[in-house]
Records
---
Amino acid sequence: MSNTAAPRLDAEAMATKERGQWEMVARRFFRHRAAVVSLVIFLVIVLFAYVGPFLWKWDYKIHSEIPSWASPSLDHPFGTDKAGRDMLGAMMQATKQSLNVALVVAIGSTVIGALYGAVAGFYRGWVDSVLMRFLDIMFVIPFLVITGALAGAIDTSVRWYHMAIILAVFGWTSIARAVRAEVLSLREKEFIEAARSAGGSDWHIITKHLIPNTMSVIIVSVTLQIAFAILSETTLSFLGLGIQSPDTSLGLLIEAAGASAFNEHWYLFYIPGVMIILIALTINFIGDGLRDAMDPRQTMVRR
Amino acid sequence: MKRHHMAAVAAFACTTLALAGCGQGSTATSSLDDCVTEPADCNTGDRAEGGEITWAVDAGWSSWNQNTADGNNAYVSLALAGMWPYTGQFDPDGEFIVNEGLFASEPELVSESPVTVEYTLKEGANWGDGTEIGVDDFIYHWYARSGDESLCAGCTPATTTYGSQVASIEGDGNTVTVTYVDSYHSAEWKYEEVLSLPAHVAEAQGFDWKNDPEQMAAAELYFSETTPTWTTGPYKVTDASMGEYVIYEPNEDWAGDTDVTLDKLTFRVIEGIENIVTALRNGEIDGSSPFSATAEAITQLETAEGVDYSVAGGPNWEHIDLNTRNEFLQDVALRTAVFQAIDLENIIERTYAFVQSDIERKNNHLFRNGSEYYEDHLTATGQGTGDIEQARGTLEDAGYTWDGDGNLLTPDGDQVTLDFRYLETRESRKITGELTQATLTDLGIDVELRAIAPDALGTVLAEADFDIINFGWSSDPLFVGSPSQYWSSESGSNFGHLEDPELDALIEDINGTLDMDEAAARANEAVKRVIEDAYVLPIVDAPVMVMVSDRLVNVRDNWASQQRAAYNIAEWGVADTE
Amino acid sequence: MVVFIIRRTLMMIPVLLGATILCFALVDLSNDPVQDRVFEIEQSTGEPVPQSTIDALESSWYYDRSVPERYWIWLTGLGDTNGDIGLLQGKWGPSIEGSAMDISYEVSTRFWITLRLVLFATLASIGIAILAGVVSAVKQYSRTDYTLTFVGFLFLAMPVFWLGSLFKEGAVQINKVLGSTVFQTYGSGTTGFRGNGWEVFVDSLPFLIVPTLVLMLGGYAAISRYQRASMLEVMNSDYVRLARAKGVRNGTVMRRHALRTALIPVATFAPLALSGAMGGAMVTERIFGWRGLGVYSLDAINAGDTFAVMAYVLISGVVVLVGVLISDILYGVLDPRIRYE
């Protein structure tokens, strides 16, 4: 921007308007009861995973003092597994690593997808065609097959970050489409014209003007990506194509529990399963609440 | 062997008599629980006439031809147990029973130089289609496994140990004589497989296999893809689908003496022990002998009604290997110390003992605990005891030191770090890794755990991409060929690249005798040497389980046979409850 | 319309080519099946594998040449081949499982097994989704709406493999209570069963019900959200308001005007849901032991069987693209505002 006074005033005006807008979003969001409850539960899960290990006496490793296959009790609220592992400790570690994957995937795939979609939508023409054809290719490749094949190709233990990168690299296509559609309409707006005439570079326009204005789409997609990443990661782990020891994940815990849903080791099966459901469920409600809060048009339909 | 042969004859006598009333009134029915004390006689009982059995096989197969690399698969071997022409079977006591449907007597050694073996076919031994088994079938098998381009061009035999050693085969009436090349001196000549597929079927299909190596290869391919309708066993295939199921009915033309009672026998693929247990509890199958055992499966079976199971050391042995090309592990002192620091009792207690409570540590690489040839050279060395003090002593003597943080330093002052590799899908190996990591940390060695993807074990081994690794070898009663495969400097399966000329010489010697006892003594010398080299540390014979509906009789596990419980398939039956 | 279809079909070709190149490179570079097979054989025979066998394996799987050469030969079949490869000549290439596991035979038989599972599950899930979506929209913000929404979200959040394991165990428990084998847990039909179409179907029912239920519940939630939103939009549209204002009875408005229009998005979504269920089928087939395409691809990945993986990539790619095409055509047929030039 130039150093004249008017634009600065403009910018200030926009800033206040923006704060007002976010306030309104927050107000609308907090009116969505399910979303708020979900947010609280989700935060509790995050605390459980990241702070819990500092408070709980057992870690996720095998200890000779721990009896094998103890049912839930005060000493071991989630029981213990065969090898002598406290399942509460193991759950914290598994939840943490599953969440790590989910957060990295959500952020990574959103960054890739948003940039990709914005570039395609901004330039249009042949750039757009090439990028969109590539998107078609990614869409056609079966997701579980390609991610599984890549995870299998890692010639050492598959750690959580390997899995996160693989899922992010193949999980960004839906965001790219959404952002592109949004950018296609935005690029014709006056403020983009203004930025362009003020001499802003393409990169500047994309990152400073287009992407910030697609934030509502992006934020909703980030939340949905978390649920997507948790479910993909656990599914791949279950199929034996995901995270490997010494790392762990909720999917691996369920896989290890086997068919014990109806016998005395039921807790090994249900606890990690319920944790996955809780994460995915709360994330979906939060995403729903955010969408309602940020998309006034839809709210109008609803009210 | 002699002792056993008598036992087999006695058993036959009784089964024959059973028809005439022998065994009636003898209600001494035993269960699988007795397999610990009587591995070859547990779960015996009177059979009812008729009945059906469905048996689960824990993985599929992709070829019907067991000569080929594609068909070399324990699962197809199990599924075809009802019809395949085996020379014989080792029973759970480790003793050899010659195939009653093929041979009138055990093979005989008629000359030692060159080794010449005479086979006497049983009167009426046939392929189930009226054609008798003959010398051409022996020759066909030889060609198929020769690995010789002038006999079978472009063939992919899984093994050529037998085929490449045959010089000629001649037949005269019911006797067939196999003459080996001069260099053949295996003490295990009696157990060589000599038959596989019907030569006359190949000819009927228009393959001139005898004269044209290309046609021979084409015949092998034909047998690979074609559902076998011929049979030399107690059953005959009525329907089958590759890698999915095989359905049998009794073979009326079988030359064996055992009375077959079942009307129908089905082998059906169910992948994964969990799925097998569920299907058994749900009554979809009557039993299975999967090549694994898990504590979870046992928990399920304990509460299941009408199901019996037993767990015992199976046909594979677990071991920890060291890579002698590693910059640290090339020193035998460090290798010895690493093995001394590993606490096998603790490892076993937290892994294999969950499925087999009476499991014992394995102390000999070639012979199972309890085998007549078993010798323990391992205990005296302290390897596998977890004695950190002893390990430290070994290292101090060799000039190793520790820095202020307790890290182990080589005599040159380098810090020792190693990795430990294991197959991710094997939980026991994973835990073995974790526990090894813990004990070696006590010794000042930093160990990194690195899992191996399900399909990559072969690659990791071939590229020697490991410092310490835990994997398994098969442990059938045959031992003569094993040391050269495992430890010979030249062998492609000597994955840790041990090069010990003295050991090579000892291995060479094993092949120089036709006497089993002498060969075993020489093999034990090699075992002793490899222990001194601190190269391979045996853990256990990996436990496997057999689970059967309690209405089945004469079904029991057999580690010594590749077909496991199906080794005595002719005797299988449904209990006579009257 | 015909021109449109032809153009779209032609446009599939570069997309499929790109997808196969990418997959081929990634899958092939990450595997060495020859070494793994050699080790497997060694482990089971207890003897070293002859070099002649190793060479023969390499040449029969085309592992004696580079990755780009292998892709080219897979695609075209031109050059020095064993006559079993070349997609353009209708040959899928050799499976490392051996010549008896012919890829084209495997995928064609397995395709129908997977399709049966996926088709039943998708039809059922669409039916339930429409019902739930409409009820939710009509009773917006009622207890019913919230309950249905919650249940939908619950199934959306449930990993298919967990639900599958749970239902499978549940079926065993039900059998136990009933004292008979109503539900089978493994396979897609009685071993070796032969019969006409109807008999096969009846035979497969005990095998079909539970996995279909699992796949259905996994798929229905997404569609029902779709249906609810579109129903709401239509109900708030001017022409529905007009109809109501005219005094048309509520039920008639719903049936004649609202539902018919609101079904358009769902109808166009269905072909996509079908291809989406192909992914879910992988897990369901694994748990219930169906010998379908999904399990085939998983096994192929685990074994490093590149040509078999490629067959799956190609088939699922075609299914997805055809699904998109049908969806676009349906959109045009159902929505009179859209015309294809």
---
Amino acid sequence: MEENMEGKNPEEKPAAAPEPVAEKPVPKPKPKPKKAEVGPRFVVSSSPHMHDGRTVAQIMRLVLIALAPAALFSIYIFGLDALRVLMISIASALIFEAISQKIMKRPLALRDSSAMLTGLLLAMNLPSTSPWWLIVTGNFFAIVIAKQLYGGLGYNPFNPALVGRVVLLISFPVHMTARWVTNSRFGTDAVTTATPLTQMKESLATLGHIDIAVGKDAIIDLLIGNRAGCLGETSVVLLALGGLFLIWKKVISWRIPVMFIGAVWAMTGIFYLIDPTHYANPSFHVITGGLFIGALFMATDYVTSPVTKKGMLIFGAGCGVITVLIRLWGAYPEGVSFAILLMNAATPLIDRYTKPKVFGAVDTRKAAA
Amino acid sequence: MGRSKFFGGVHPSYNKGLADSRAIVEIPMPEKLIVFFAQNLGVPSQPVVKKGDEVKKGQVIAESGGFVSTPIHAPTSGTIDSIGIHPSPVGVDASAAVIIPDGNDEWFEGCSAERSSEGLDADKIKEIIHDNGIVGMGGATFPTHVKLSPPADKKMDILVINGAECEPYLTADHRLMVEHTEGILDGAALFAAVIGVGRVIIAIEKNKPDAIEVMRKAVASRDGFSVEAMDVIYPQGAEKQLIYALTKRKVPAGGLPMDVGVLVQNVGTALAACDAVRYNRPLIERVVTVTGSGIKEPKNVLARVGTRFEDLVNFCGGLEGDAAKCINGGPMMGVAQYSLDAAVTKGTSGLVILRQEEVAQFVSDACVRCGRCLDACPMGLNPSALSIFAERMRFEDTNEYNIMDCIECGCCAYVCPSRRPMVHHFRRAKAEVRKLQKKAG
């Protein structure tokens, strides 16, 4: 049907023109001589005939640019291992995308950069110690299972990179959660250590109260990224800058990240006020784990988040609440990925119940009253 | 202080500089005119001439087909060469009379005779407006006398003369306001008298400072008239958006401007009405902006109804470069032509010819749900969902998502990064919904 848009069959197109709304059917003109003989000369399509020039590929590239500082910083702190993870991940994402599109006889669309973005995002959700087969498996699930099998870009209900990450998290917990490295650049030797959230959870289980460093130095370390974690989890500052860039460029709206981070902060804040020995400081919760990359880059994925403004607020808040529930009472130390995936599932429903208000709709009711 | 605060809208490149300083010029009488019989929204006019008839300028060649209809007049004196099917500028082949001008351009008896509008009552003015075939000249071609006949229970209090001209490229209304200021205001005064309103607002987008200035000077001496400089945002000139920006009144969904006491008339319509009442001149010519990068010399052309697009293009120096698209009207809502064989109708506000590199390609990838269309839609719809429903032929769902409130302004498609032909989907869905509603009774 769409092929006609390019004017290959201009004779068929007039049906799309805004015909006058006749009160009764237009009387067929009596003389029916030969059709006017005209050779197609111009491109024919429905209005509008102008476009602002924005493409999906441009948007994806802006997101890649926004992620670049944090990705480069991960190489700085985790060394060449991080570079290895990034390269294997992006390469395998592109290869899986190309193979899928070939097999499924879809047009090859690597240029839309969406697979590259998925590969980058997944890499940033992996530890720098990830073996190559782990990265490739994750990308297989992300690109082939979560994206292409559903129909490709635009049709996937769940964020592909997060599906990849969660499959790995459940299937290979040791590789995903127990082999952290902090870097010597900040004065300590490379050691295997737990992430701050894991430390919190473990101390709560063994000591009966939380035992985490929340001093000024510890907070600064967390902010700049001097801690154990996935590649992209670490530098809150650079991720925030990237997010602000995307909001400034109008690629994403403030609604989902602000509600997401805000909900985590508010909810953990309430529990902190109730019992600071069992519940960590809300600032600690906000700047640890994958909250920033999740809230700014994963929850804001267009395809899997609501399109309505009200829907975005609900989606963001829901992500925040589920994250906190998992962090405080769940089996896993971190809940951002699960929270976003669960809210992805709720997205069609949220969109349905947050239909925007039609211009003039209120007055109809008033007039009727 | 911007007066534009309707929701949504876009900022396309307006490209009005191509023609906005060019005074209106009249095109010499073409060798033949193709005058369509369906020139108004509503019921098409009924032809009353046959092949071989001699007609005079201003003679009725088709009568009203009903209340929501208008007569059509011969644009010049000459012979009816044939009556047949021709490609019309709205994209369908339609019935038209081909008139070969005799070169004398001789008025029909009684036409073009000056008369005083003193002492004419509202019904008489409406009758004159109908008899002279006046329709909305902004492009919608709705019969003006119908708009001037609101039901008795609708209390009207504001007349808006729409000089926003928010479509990119078009400058016809702009030039009319600069060159025919008094005529437009006289026409506005007639409309105001007919519907009995004391307040007249001339609404002009700020990108026409010279028009704003001359209008401001001209309204100084008229009671109840004012000029509002409107922010430049598309679709500022859409009735509901314009009314909201000016008065903060919201035309109810599915309703008409009269529901909030406002009548909107285009500047060209006001001028045509003034000519009809004061000089008994039927609507047989109009200003058409012939412009775009694909035309050698962009101009604002005063053209007889029936002037073929090819004649317009030749008058403006011919096509330039790889002209790839020819649009009847503006580039946001106009209808693409497949050839230059169609002709000017009462609703032809412009002929925009774009080059290959400017032609927006709509290839229809999957919706990535970026939500830009929701931000752009001035009617507060969810175009993303609507286009997906329409694509899957779920027309009942499109109705539930208020497809019928779509004004087809094209803002959604303009911003869509997946280049989905949104308006194309919506026109189809609206037609299907109308069918469903008819079936349901």
---
Amino acid sequence: MEILLVLGFPLLGAALLAVVGAQRYAAEVNVAVSLATLLAAAALVVRIIHGGPMTVAREQFFIDPFNVFLVALTALVGFTTAVFSRPYMRIEAGHGRLSPGRLRLYHSMYQLFMAAMFVALTTNNMGFLWVSMEAATLSTVLLVSLYRTRASIEAAWKYFILCGVGIALALFGTILLYVAAEGLLGGSDMDALLWTHLDAVKGQLEPRVMGLAFVFLLVGYGTKVGLAPLHNWLPDAHAEGPTPVSAVLSGLLLNVALYAVMRCKILADGALHSALPGHMLMGFGLLSTLLASFYLWRQRDIKRLFAYSSIEHMGIITFAFGMGGPVANFAGLLHMTVHSLTKSAIFFTAGHAAQSAGTQRMDGIRGLLALHPSVGWGLMLGSLAILGMPPFGVFASEYLILTTAMRDHPWATPILLIALAVAFAAIFSRVQPMVFGDTDARPLPHSPALVPVFVHLAIVLMLGVYIPPALAEWYRLAARLMAG
Amino acid sequence: MATMNLATQLLQMLAGALLLISFAMLAERRSRRLVTLLVWQGVVLVASTALVAATAHQSHLYYSAALTLLLKVGLLPWILLRLMRKLGIERDNEPLVNVPTLMLVGLVLVIFAFGLAQPVSALATTIIRRTLGIALAVVLLAFLMILARRKAFTQVIGFLALENGLFFAATSTTYGMPLVVELGIALDLLVGVFIFGIFFFQISEQFDSLDLQHLESLKED
């Protein structure tokens, strides 16, 4: 029942906003729909905590502690981003960058994007997982080119072609998965690609076919995670789209894509009886982390800077999941949570910083603390949090990942440490002059909604010093599920 | 048994035709003819799907063949041709450098695809699976086409050819994906092409051309 609400609210919202999305009250409708979704997601969480994993609608949907955790996170960030976007998009419209028609497109597609992600998270059918991942791409492509500038159209085209090709590989992987399972799963057509059924027989899946399938699935969905060397679309799409879109792409879509990879990895682990899938994840993860941290130095644009930081962190999470085991999986899940919250908070403040300075170039942004103390503090604290300063939650998860790496894979530790140090120096040296110093820019016409920023950072801070036992238990359950 | 053999041979012939069309697309410079080739690929797909449906008695594959006919032979080419007319690029030629090299790379890709599909084909509980290598080759050739072309319109044709290869893989190796999934994929494809259409207008409005060489400002600086 709750699952229907979680999927239904955003879908209805998308339809409603397709009609009234250009009205004065559209932003409020957007917030209300997102709040309703969040409440439904909370109800779903309560249901799963008490009742355990369940399947709904003739097993087409499947909810367990692993995905319900991501549903809750997605609904939360979806809601706070809607709150943030209300004044932000009003300021953008005031600058003349958006016509009412485009505002309608924005609101409607925002909800459609949320719906696609919820379907991807909760579906039990590997085919539908693919369809909804593709739908998530399609609904955001036109959002990336919302401003219709040359750069934004180029970014959207790149996003479309690269992710389209990537996801086509994932479809080939899905077909191979079907080949590997063929004969094992009798029954009707509808049941053939159900994850729960595949999971039950994963030990008998034909290993050679499954190995090939996993390579295609990893590269395909990995493109959407932003794993190097297929990360090219990510910085462009994040930098050129409107800031709320950057926040949900970075904070949510990357997680959902990684979730798809993990579902496939659980099956591949069971079929292959070897550490190969884990090693592949570790390789891709380390490469992404290292490459992204060096690219950070070359960035001039504030949103590109933090987009590369997202690649770096997705690399760390992928590496953690690649190591596997209860501690690394726990740390990976924690890192997913704190990265999502921190990165969206940073994008919120970066968006307003760019608005007040009139440019996204970092050498044009100065003196945020003097102009808008809350924006300045938000950016500073957010950056410190994402760089892994204690006592924020990112420190806790990175510490766990590093210590596990030292124990199990000592060779990887220096690489990770170098990447983290390089990223620290790069981001800190850029953020510091933006926050301090003098400015002659004028304050923003609408006061920014920065409550979400501080709510996110407060949660991240709390997770750094104290993880509530219920939440810890939940992470543990999910980590155990991921170990297969 | 004799009919089974005939059907298998026919299917392999169709697979070969698909591969040939892919090579033809790689070397074709006229946009208009590329659409024609894409339609031919669609026709081959419809024929092979119907053939598999008839020999394997998989009735749901008939629906899937009908869907393919409607979408890939009817609707998509119609949308593409209309777009070409509206954008005035019907007679566009695209200069292609180094066709021989492109062909050689294509050949290497085909060999690579067959090598990659070998473990799956070796299992071959159904004879049909032998065509997986060809399907993978079609996918890789479409990749090559997307990489080698500089115009937005031809990249999209490459993208659709890529999808054709995937569809062929699905029908010929596993008697097709479950029908609901296929419907979902078809829907995504259709929406995708609509968005491509919107893009063409946005690109040609902003850049006065569909040549992607103009789209190279977003580089790392």
---
Amino acid sequence: MSLAHYLTLAIALFTIGLIGVVLRRNLLVAFMSIELMLNGVNLSFIAFSRYLGDMQGQMAAFFIVILAAAEAAVGLAIIVLLFRRQGSVQSNLFQNLKDRIEV
Amino acid sequence: MTILFYILAGLALISAIAVISFRQPVYSALSLVVTLFSLAGLYLTLHAEFLAIIQILTYAGAILILFVFIIMLLNLNDDELKEQTPALWRRIVLALLGGFTFAGLWWGVSKFEGDVKNLPQGFGSIINSGKLLFTEYVLAFEIAGILLTVALIGALVLAKRRLKI
């Protein structure tokens, strides 16, 4: 398998994650899509690491996994808070910061 | 090797699409587990044994359990899971966004040939990863530890009902 195969898969995963973030209104699923995007980037790091014969890409991927763990903990806590406030996890309900123009 | 790649890649893609298309978040979380496991298999084909283990332990083990716990804790009913189908212009914009992202990135990477090099002994093994982590990357490793502590405290403070100071 060539490097381009792995990178194509990584890009496909990233694109699916991006579409999920934009498309889905459910905050939990949008959050999972962010995890998909992170995994796509991780795969490209590891593929480059393999084809350059250099371990540094694997180290970068390792730190991304740590980052994802921290992000999941804080993000899910925020989702629980939002659910307590509104009783729902639909992202279109949270528009308090949106600019309302009074005419 | 080639067959293995196509099986794992197909599994990862199908379950990734399933993640964003299921209405029930529990099904999405379970599909995400399949994606993460097939990615761990792909890491093994790339000689990244340590990262494959970390992927299963941390992602499939810790993060996804957290997701499933939160989904069950929130106990969403069918009304709250209902999403109206997006308008036509929204779908067109979304398809364009996805298409352009994929095409642009793919145009960038399709030139990489990447001849297979002979890897040094123990490439991607736990011993070599540990050596690198505790010598060259020791500062980043410590900062990662601080980051995890801060995230833990932050999550506790956020999730606590009322903070008495």
